[in-house]
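User: structure tokens for this one?
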Amino acid sequence: MTLKQLELFLAITDQRSFSRGAELVSLVQSTASQHIRSLEDELASRLFDRSKKGVYLTEAGRLFEQHARRICTDCDDARLAMRRFAGAEEAIVRVGASTIPAACLIPDMLGPFTAAWPGVRLELVQGDTREVLRLLQADAMELALVGGRYDAEQIIFEPIASEQILLVASPVLQLKRLDHCHDLLQLPLILREPGSGTRQVVDAALVQAGVNLSTLRVIAQLGSSEAVRRAVLSGAGCGFVSSLAVERELAAGALLAVSVPGLTIRQQFYLATRRGKTISPAAAAFIATLRKQS
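Assistant:
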């Protein structure tokens, strides 16, 4: 049984004529008769009765018509869905993002993206860099924006944007500048969890500056930049936070950026995609908008 046979069967049913039905599906009458004969043989049932007045469905034909119409309607719907998908007229793009890209980069580009592609719906999954990349590898999303990269042959990392990581403190601590990088050892520090891109970048910068990480006075490890920001605002300690996450607090004086001699930390954000995976038109549109905004 083929889709062509079903379309021919319905055309003959509607036209009550083999010749007119055959024309509708671009077949000659002899070929149409062969198709129907083959279909009847497969179903072991006669589908049409023929008379001088036309062609009529048998009882078996009426039963089969219900299923044939449903199948052809589903096929038409599938074709329409794929055309809309190819034109990004009606599609979903699933994106993973670590904390800062999810809170800052994606919201900033969402306006231009939805204006250019109103038929595309964004579904965002947020987590730390390690978790987001794990989900990307598991094919739970098409692409990801993360603040760190790991050695993974199946993932392609494209640098997309960067920002500065600052050591910030509440004004109540009366701390604006350290005399030496090793003065960090005396501070109560609030850090991101080890799986985050921010923590990865901060640890690498401190090691490069000659700081022994095991000697840091870490009073808390928190699961998001927002949590670190709020803890620092409470006066609990100092924290390394993205400048994007605290720009309003710095401008208002609610937080102070602490200068650390010999320590400048920049975090690179990456667009991560799976190697060898075909990107959908909706995801390609998202990536194009991201590159344009970055």
